[in-house]
Q: What sequence folds into this?
């Protein structure tokens, strides 16, 4: 019998923080985005990114209570739990969790906002086939899709919980949004709209 792997993102999934990404454009102008805005940002040629605020302890962070409770529940049940964050340095995340009553959870910093980097790490975890289920708590659809793809390729059951604006969104809502998005893409490609 396999084991369940539960994966939590950190920023905008377990906490809301004031950390920002600074972007310097090719023309020298600068832009400052929070993590939610950055998730929707379309990179321009010549952009330079400064993620340094995400390498620090999250000051003035607010817990996303539903997700944080799910983390605690997951840690007290059977299976493995990890925090998989785009942050490079896991130490401030570990310290923050410990300060908020959660210790002993592995925190992995992939150091990248590329969804494939999270997916590659998940692939390294599941390749030995000891898991029969992977459940991801994440605020970014691109990350969910990338992880789902590698989990599906291994024939492992997959579940996800989308966290949006500090609340949990059901899988049925995610599936409905995916269907609508795919239909819109189909209609655009075929000149229907």
A:
């Amino acid at each position: 019998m396999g084991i369940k792997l539960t994966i939590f993102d950190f920023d905008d999934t377990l906490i809301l923080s004031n950390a920002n990404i600074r972007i310097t454009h090719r023309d020298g102008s600068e832009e400052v985005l929070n993590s939610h805005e950055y998730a929707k940002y379309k990179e321009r040629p010549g952009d330079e990114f400064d993620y340094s605020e995400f390498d620090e302890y999250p000051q003035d962070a607010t817990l996303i209570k539903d997700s944080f409770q799910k983390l605690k529940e997951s840690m007290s049940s059977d299976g493995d739990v990890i925090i998989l964050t785009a942050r490079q340095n896991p130490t401030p995340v570990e310290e923050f969790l410990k300060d908020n009553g959660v210790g002993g959870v592995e925190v992995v910093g992939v150091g990248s906002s590329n969804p494939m980097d999270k997916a590659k790490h998940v692939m390294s975890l599941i390749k030995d086939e000891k898991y029969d289920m992977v459940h991801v708590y994440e605020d970014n659809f691109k990350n969910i899709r990338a992880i789902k793809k590698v989990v599906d390729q291994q024939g492992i059951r997959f579940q996800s919980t989308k966290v949006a604006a500090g609340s949990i969104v059901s899988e049925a809502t995610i599936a409905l949004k995916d269907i609508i998005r795919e239909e819109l893409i189909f209609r655009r490609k075929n000149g229907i709209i």
In short: The two ends are 49 Å apart (CA to CA). Confidence is low (pLDDT under 50) at residues 166-170. DSSP finds six helices and eleven strands in the chain.
